[in-house]
Design goal:
The structure is a single chain. This protein starts with 7 loop residues before the first strand and ends with a strand. The chain is α/β, with parallel strands linked by helices. Helix 5 (344-354) packs parallel to helix 6 and helix 9 (483-499) runs parallel beside helix 10. It has helices spanning 38-53, 263-266, 291-303, 321-329, 344-354, 377-394, 410-418, 441-453, 483-499, 528-537, and strands spanning 8-13, 16-21, 93-98, 114-119, 125-126, 131-135, 145-152, 157-163, 166-173, 194-201, 212-216, 223-231, 241-245, 272-275, 307-310, 358-362, 399-401, 428-430, 460-462, 504-507, 545-547, 550-553, 561-562, 565-570, 576-581, 590-597, 604-607, 615-617, 624-631, 635-640.
């Protein structure tokens, strides 16, 4: 009773009628035993084509199917076409259930009750109140991480993970409305699922006399799985990197409005992201053609030495002529599609003069939007391939980002994959604005699932997203935006996004002026939202590396956590940072337990919240520490040897 794509069908589009046959097996002789009527099928298709063309038969009735208005949407992780899968771990893998391919279709049947029998199969769905016991392999006790990918599309969905009665994860997931207008050409995410990708730390005292992993849904709605596995961390831990985009005023040559961003702030960031504004490059006959660009690059590098440069902006001399005419008519001259070869003069200048001072190159800003790239997808692909070749020739070690997509655009992703672009870049850049909502993790999850379904193991860098401190652009009232609302939204969005398998983000933008997205005002004073960002910067300092954790209620018998998120880092000096954030909690206080791996005898603990009873439990012969605390507000905990 499943809905499947017909193998032969007739379609009509704008007055043209087509007959489709999706497999050569029906019209060829390769599989005679499977289909022995190939000749008859071809003749039947030809006769049908003749009859349709000459109006011998009328298919109007069949070409106007009545689609019920109440037809339900496909279930999460059930409708994505998969052409591949990825292995997300670079560590040792001991057991995998399913494939990390953005789809759960290969998994087992839905589980709708408590299942006592041990199974080897992860279910597609885990219904409310139901549970399943997965059989563990012989070497499961060598695993220190559990990775899972799942989805939900309503409130009231939960997941509890336990091994040998040790509860390692117990959460009710929070869904927030994401309907309404988003970032320019970005699609609406209304009714789209949140696809989550989590890692849970497994201390080694859980493995005694155990052979099953229990998954339980403590909620009232269904959870949908993609895949799950047991593994160890990758050999080299990933560094935390939190950066800021610079104000647009910082990128315009000769601007009289110079943003005020004190160096004591800007030099703390992991990076700055800025447009190269290459539309200001002069023509070949101009002996001072690159002076304006050079002046801006030097100013940017003084702000922060880790510059991520967006190669974007087309001068007339480097534009495809008809595209430049179109762009001028749209009052967006710099968005004209660039001539792939002429533009390389600019790329060569940047690489030769600044190649050793630029951290990464981004291949245009939001090229999936006509607002920034006024040209076809193929013209963008041609430009990308030429630009990538130039960068690789001049600096083979350079890091190259794809265009920062304005939102989740499946069609555009497939186009640049077919054009060979994503196979040649190092990072997939993405702008996970979610309308007015703080659910940056929703579009992020959709993009991740699509890449996995294509078999592309590319790190995703969420490198532009932010909120406004007064109403502007698509952030229209209600609500009436204020600096306090900007801070609240940023707190929710960052805490949720970093709970996923995401270590690099860049928020839009630093400011130093009164632009609506700015985190620092025109007097160089941070707005409340900047302090949120600055708290999370502590994960990066002292060469902080991401470590996974287990976050649970303080007691295994307590209700699941809801709207509380955590992130942790290990630093080169042997210290550790843990940030807990009840950004979407509906309770004033929850006692939580955070378990993290430690490599030293940590005995000292400090908390950013005074008067809070934070306790640490760590035995000298144990490779982990357990922190227990009441969470009432965003809290930063520092552990030192």
């Amino acid at each position: 009773a499943k809905d499947v794509i017909p193998q032969m069908f007739v379609s009509r589009f704008k007055g043209r009628v087509s007959i489709h046959c999706l497999s050569g097996n029906y019209t060829g002789v390769q599989k005679v035993n499977w289909w022995n009527a190939a000749d008859q099928t071809v003749i039947a298709i030809a006769n049908l084509a003749h009859d349709i063309k000459h109006h011998v038969i009328n298919l109007d009735e069949y070409l106007h199917p009545a689609i019920p208005q109440d037809m339900p949407s496909p279930k999460p992780l059930q409708s994505r076409f998969t052409a591949g899968s990825v292995q997300p771990s670079d560590g040792q893998v001991f057991a995998t259930w399913g494939k990390f391919d953005g789809s759960g279709r290969e998994l087992g049947k839905a589980v709708t009750r408590k299942q006592q029998q041990v199974t080897d199969t992860l279910p597609q769905e885990l219904g409310p109140g139901s549970s399943v016991q997965l059989k563990l392999p012989a070497k499961a006790n060598e695993a220190t991480l559990l990775r899972y990918r799942a989805a939900y599309d309503v409130n009231g969905v939960g997941l509890q993970i336990s091994i040998n009665n040790h509860v390692l994860h117990n959460e009710l997931f929070v869904y927030v409305d994401v309907s309404g207008q988003g970032n320019f050409s970005a699609p609406s995410y209304a009714d789209q699922p949140v696809e989550i990708h989590r890692l849970v730390y497994l201390p080694d005292d859980i493995w005694e006399n155990v052979n099953t992993l229990t998954l339980h849904n403590p909620g009232r709605e269904t959870l949908y799985f993609d895949a799950m596995q047991l593994e160890t961390p990758q050999p080299v831990l990933r560094p935390w990197r939190l950066g800021l985009g610079v104000s647009l005023r910082h990128t315009i040559p000769n601007s009289t409005d110079t943003p005020s961003v004190p160096a004591k702030y800007s030099q703390r960031w992991s990076s700055i992201r800025s447009s190269a504004r290459t539309q200001y490059a002069g023509p070949p006959e101009d002996p001072r053609r690159f002076e304006k660009l050079d002046k801006r690059f030097e100013a940017l590098l003084k702000m922060n030495s880790h510059l991520e440069l967006i190669l974007e902006g087309t001068p007339q001399w480097a534009a495809i002529p008809n595209r430049y005419t179109e762009a001028v008519a749209a009052h967006r001259a710099s968005s004209a599609a660039a001539d792939p070869q002429k533009y390389q003069q600019i790329v060569e200048h940047i690489l030769k003069k600044y190649g050793d001072r630029i951290d990464a190159y981004e291949l245009w800003n939001e090229a999936d939007s006509q607002k920034y790239w006024r040209g076809s997808a193929q013209e963008y692909i041609d430009w990308c391939l030429a630009t990538i070749a130039t960068i690789r020739r001049l600096d083979p070690t350079a890091k190259i980002f794809s265009t920062g997509m304005a939102g989740f655009q499946s069609k555009f992703i497939h186009e640049i994959v077919q054009g060979g672009v994503l196979q040649k870049v190092d990072v997939f850049a993405f702008h996970p604005y979610a309308g007015k909502s703080p659910l940056w993790d929703l579009p992020y999850g959709l993009a991740e699932g699509e890449l996995m379904a294509l078999g592309l193991k590319l790190p995703i860098y969420s490198n532009e997203m932010g909120f406004v401190w007064h109403n502007a652009q698509w952030f229209t009232a209600p609500p009436v935006n204020t600096p306090a609302i900007q801070a609240d939204m940023l707190s929710i969005a960052i805490s949720r996004l970093l709970t996923n398998d995401q270590t690099d983000i860049s928020v839009f933008h630093s400011g130093g002026n009164n632009q609506p997205f700015s985190l620092i005002d025109d007097k160089g004073i941070p707005r409340p939202a900047y302090h949120i960002f600055d708290d999370y910067l502590n994960l990066c300092h002292r060469n902080g590396k991401r470590i996974e954790l287990s976050l649970t209620p303080a007691s295994d018998t307590d209700a699941p956590l809801k709207g509380i998120y955590a992130a942790a880092a290990a630093h080169d000096d042997g210290s550790y940072t843990v940030i807990t954030n009840p950004s979407l909690s509906d309770l004033h206080e929850r006692f939580v337990r955070v378990t993290i791996p430690v490599a030293s005898d940590v005995t000292q603990l400090t908390s950013s919240v005074q008067g809070v009873d934070v306790q640490i439990k760590h035995a000298p012969n144990r490779a982990w520490a357990v922190i227990t605390l009441p969470v009432t507000q965003r809290t930063r905990i520092e552990l030192t040897p």
